[in-house]
């Protein structure tokens, strides 16, 4: 007689969704999720209803209309007959240019300042403190404007470079003259630098919207080849040294491999520099690096570098002092201790906050409009938005592009972070 | 800054669903204040004076509308707008009307959904350069760096002008007139381009106006006028006929000095209809009989406003030119008040 008391059958009752702790958290999550979705839908529906009232149905067809305005810095070919979409791309390229330049320069300055701030030299350490506190405690917009004002107000106008016959007769010097062997003109509109031109062209290929000169491709290929060749020579020398104990002389060989091919190629292409010359209102020839770009780049760089310096300092301080002492005990000099022992370990701490700084710099580049630099915000979010009156569409595209750009940067940096982080087994 | 305006627009449109279609006149009356979008600062057209009170040619239009609607020309809140922010401000309902030397164009009227209520200044785009540059015609500007206010029709005209004349130039897009002035004076651009009236107004405040010339070429038609949102015809009518009343008042010799006396009745029936001593035109646009009388009394008729703000006796020194009455060979011509 074995009457096993049957375990009561679990029946699911609706009340359990609230009273049973196994289900309660799930219930709450579902409810909150539904509320959030309803809220988002309400906002969206309201927006659409209001746009209908205003007779402004969202439409992106304006992107394919003729833009009709000119842009002063175009890295990809653009005329006012191109579309608004093309103008947007011009702006995007300008944004990427200033972001990339800014990230590189800010990293270099930030690391130097961060290390120097820990220097035992009292004066150097205090100067770096002044720099860091000065830059990171003032809004970046003000720095950009100040730097722009300095460039505009104190540098000479292009016509100050003019030399007239009367001046030669009177033996007068022009108010301003070009620097660096008469090749670079610093003016209040920008710096005119020599441009590389080739007499013979290998032709162009079109990748998407971007025409790429095969000359540039060839030069890059040769440079990469030279670097690989130089490394191979070094490697061979080390192998020989390890086998025989004598390091072969490689100076001439490596010089030849490093510089020979590129000089030959440039000679074959008929490479020469186009020096800017004063003509009419402005310098013609050469490349104009506008003051707007310089001011934006410097402002963003110096501001972000101050934050990066602090991140670097924190990273270095996070490495135990024992590491330095151990390194000194092995007879490694302080400079090499920093670059070979401390910094590689500090990178683990430095990289994650560094990503945020890169993202900040990229997004802050939208302050470009303050100095008339035509970035994405200036073209799509500025002139296109105004001329077409499509605020919502332009802003949505703008937000999407910045989002994509930021995600791209952080995923790239995450790959790097994974490469340098502590390998655990 | 633009983003915040945009988000404000979004928030405002989300909160005030259906607001855009309701009557602006009722809103203004309930608020007891007219919100008028003006320039951020263009002396003669709209700029605060030494005491912080807004003065100018466009400001006078705001005052006249406020006087007609609210009975008090001082009950205006002026919202400074840039070339970029003005349309968003009007479309979102942040301002009731825009009187900011804005060019009447097809796409602004039809695509941006605004109603231009008339033309208060017939203008055209010109160029200003420093005299010592030795330039006497805009056709000599090949290769020049040109400062230009972004978000305006001038930007497109400039591109067209240089294209047609097969010349090249470097555009420098600036946000406000003040910024343009600074860049131009620092020599960061060779030429400054905007509406000829704006150039004259800008030049008037320079320390050395005699060293700057406005080139003779006028490269575009720029009929400037006040505008309101689409969809509220009554409010558009009020704005249109206040402006017409100011112009008609000059034609019929009604001034701020004699308006009180003439409103008792004259032997000209049209003047009587405007000033309300005969018929009741005001009721047709939702106002009382004396709306036009108050509008004229606020800062005078069109001619008086012109003379006091931008006319030849002021530092800006603009001649009437196209902006004279049709009887004087100009373009000002109001439909009849009947």
Give the CATH superfamily of the largest domain in chain B.
Answer: Periplasmic binding protein-like II
Number of domains of chain B: 2
Query: Largest sheet of chain A, order of strands side by side?
Result: 1-2-9
Q: How would you name the oligomeric state of the polypeptide chains in this document?
A: heterodimer
How many H/I helical runs of chain A? Answer: 13
What are the secondary-structure elements of chain A, in order, as H or E? Answer: HHHHHHEEEEEHHEEEEHHHHH
Indicate the proportion of strand residues of chain A: 5-15%
Output the CATH class name of the largest domain in chain B: Alpha Beta
Task: Work out the radius of gyration of chain A.
Answer: 30 Å
CATH level-3 fold name of the domain at 84-154 and 290-420 in chain A: MetI-like fold
Main sheet record of chain A: 3 strands, antiparallel
End-to-end span of chain A in angstroms? 59 Å
**Cα end-to-end separation of chain B:** 46 Å
Helical percentage of chain B: 25-40%
Corresponding CATH superfamily of the domain at 84-154 and 290-420 in chain A: MetI-like
Mean pLDDT of chain A: 86
Rg of chain B, Å, rounded: 20 Å
Just name the CATH architecture of the largest domain in chain B: 3-Layer(aba) Sandwich
What's the topology here?
The complex is a heterodimer of chains A (425) and B (338).
Chain A: H1 16-19, H2 21-53, H3 84-116, H4 122-136, H5 140-154, H6 165-170, E1 185-186, E2 190-193, E3 195-198, E4 204-207, E5 210-213, H7 214-244, H8 251-269, E6 271-274, E7 277-279, E8 282-284, E9 287-290, H9 291-317, H10 321-329, H11 334-364, H12 376-388, H13 391-420
Antiparallel strand pairs in A: 1-2, 2-9, 3-6, 4-5, 7-8
Helix pairs in contact in A: 3-9, 3-11, 3-12, 4-9, 5-9, 7-8, 9-11, 10-11, 11-13, 12-13
Chain B: H1 2-15, H2 24-31, E1 34-39, E2 47-48, E3 54-55, H3 57-70, E4 76-81, H4 86-91, E5 97-103, H5 106-110, E6 114-116, E7 121-123, E8 125-130, E9 144-149, H6 153-164, E10 169-174, H7 177-185, E11 191-195, H8 196-204, E12 212-214, E13 222-229, H9 233-251, H10 259-262, H11 269-275, H12 281-284, H13 291-299, H14 302-309
Helix pairs in contact in B: 3-9, 3-13, 9-13
């Amino acid at each position: 007689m074995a009457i096993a008391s049957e375990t009561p059958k679990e029946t699911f009752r609706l009340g359990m969704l609230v009273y049973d702790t196994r289900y309660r958290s799930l219930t709450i999550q579902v409810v909150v999720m539904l509320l959030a979705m309803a809220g988002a839908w309400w906002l969206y529906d309201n927006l659409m209803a209001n746009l209908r009232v205003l007779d402004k149905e969202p439409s992106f067809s304006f992107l394919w209309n003729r833009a009709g305005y000119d842009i002063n810095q175009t890295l990809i070919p653009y005329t006012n007959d191109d579309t608004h979409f093309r103008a947007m791309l011009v702006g995007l390229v300008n944004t990427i240019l200033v972001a990339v330049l800014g990230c590189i320069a800010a990293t270099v300055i930030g690391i130097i300042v961060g290390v120097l701030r820990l220097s035992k030299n009292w004066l150097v350490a205090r100067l770096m403190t002044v720099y860091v506190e000065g830059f990171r405690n003032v809004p970046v917009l003000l720095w950009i404007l100040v730097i722009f004002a300095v460039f505009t107000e104190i540098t000479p106008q292009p016509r100050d470079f003019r030399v007239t016959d009367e001046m030669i007769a009177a033996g007068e010097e022009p108010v301003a003259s070009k620097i660096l062997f008469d090749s670079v003109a610093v003016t209040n509109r920008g710096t005119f630098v020599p441009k590389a031109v080739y007499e013979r062209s290998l032709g162009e290929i079109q990748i998407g919207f971007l025409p790429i000169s095969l000359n540039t491709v060839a030069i890059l290929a040769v440079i990469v080849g030279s670097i690989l060749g130089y490394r191979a020579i070094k490697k061979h020398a080390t192998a020989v040294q390890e086998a025989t104990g004598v390091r072969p002389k490689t100076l001439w060989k490596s010089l030849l491999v490093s510089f020979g091919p590129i000089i030959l190629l440039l000679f074959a292409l008929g490479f020469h520099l186009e020096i800017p010359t004063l003509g009419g209102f402005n310098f013609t020839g050469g490349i104009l690096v506008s003051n707007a770009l310089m001011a934006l780049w410097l402002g963003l760089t110096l501001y972000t570098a101050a934050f990066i310096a602090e991140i670097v300092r924190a990273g270095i301080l996070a490495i135990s002092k024992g590491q330095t002492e151990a390194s000194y005990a092995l007879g490694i000099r302080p400079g090499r201790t920093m670059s070979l022992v401390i910094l590689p370990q500090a990178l683990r701490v430095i990289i994650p906050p560094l990503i945020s700084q890169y993202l900040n710099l990229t997004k802050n580049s939208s302050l470009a409009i303050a100095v008339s630099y035509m970035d994405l915000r200036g073209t799509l979010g500025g002139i296109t938005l105004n001329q077409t009156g499509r605020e919502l569409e332009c802003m949505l595209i703008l937000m999407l592009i910045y989002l994509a750009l930021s995600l791209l940067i952080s995923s790239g940096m995450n790959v790097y972070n994974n490469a340098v982080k502590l390998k655990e087994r | 800054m633009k983003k915040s305006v945009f988000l404000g627009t979004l928030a405002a449109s989300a909160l005030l669903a259906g607001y855009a279609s309701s009557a602006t006149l009722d809103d203004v009356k309930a608020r007891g204040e007219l919100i008028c979008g003006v320039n951020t600062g263009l002396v003669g057209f709209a700029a605060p004076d030494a005491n912080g009170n807004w003065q100018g040619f466009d400001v006078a239009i705001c005052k006249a509308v406020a006087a007609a609607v609210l009975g008090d020309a001082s009950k205006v809140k002026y919202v400074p707008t840039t070339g970029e922010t003005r349309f968003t401000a009007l479309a979102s309902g942040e301002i009731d009307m825009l009187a900011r030397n804005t060019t009447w164009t097809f796409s602004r009227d039809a695509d941006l959904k605004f109603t231009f209520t008339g033309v208060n200044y017939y203008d055209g785009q010109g160029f200003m350069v420093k005299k010592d540059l030795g330039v006497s015609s805009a056709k000599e500007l090949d290769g020049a760096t040109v400062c230009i206010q972004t978000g305006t029709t001038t930007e497109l005209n400039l591109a067209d002008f240089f294209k047609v004349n097969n010349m090249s130039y470097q555009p420098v897009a600036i946000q406000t007139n003040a910024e343009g002035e600074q860049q131009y004076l620092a020599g960061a651009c060779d030429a400054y381009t905007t509406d000829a009236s704006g150039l004259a107004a800008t030049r008037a405040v320079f320390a050395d106006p005699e060293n700057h010339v406005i080139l003779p070429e006028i490269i575009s038609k720029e009929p400037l006028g006040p505008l309101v949102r689409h969809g509220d015809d009554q409010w558009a009518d009020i704005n249109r006929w206040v402006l017409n009343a100011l112009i008609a008042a000059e034609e019929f010799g009604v001034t701020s000095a004699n308006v009180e006396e003439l409103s008792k009745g004259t032997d000209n029936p049209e003047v009587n209809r405007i000033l309300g001593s005969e018929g009741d035109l005001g009721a047709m646009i939702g106002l009382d009989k004396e709306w036009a009388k108050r509008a004229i009394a606020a800062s005078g008729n069109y001619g008086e406003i012109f003379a006091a703000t931008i006319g030849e006796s002021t530092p800006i020194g603009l001649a009437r030119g196209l902006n004279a009455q049709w009887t004087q060979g100009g373009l000002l011509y109001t439909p009849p008040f009947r």
